[in-house]
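Lay summary. Proteins are chains of building blocks that fold into shapes, and those shapes determine what they do. In this project we predict the shape from the chain. Here is one chain we studied, written as its sequence of building blocks.
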Amino acid sequence: MPKMKTHSASKKRFAKTKNGKIKRAKAYRRHHAWAKGSEDIRNLRGIAYVSKADSAKFKVLLPY
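And here is the predicted shape, written in a compact code that computers can read:
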């Protein structure tokens, strides 16, 4: 059986941690900053994790 291919768009946007969780960037950060408060922008910093409900889908997209 051939090796599964990693989904190219997903490998650019997500990363697996050592424990198997999937890291992602937070949305709504790039444009329209004038409409957001400084606290809103500050809370969009850093990383977030994919929810457990969605993680099964990502295991197919990111097998390795």
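What the prediction tells us: Strands lie at 15-16, 22-25, 47-49.
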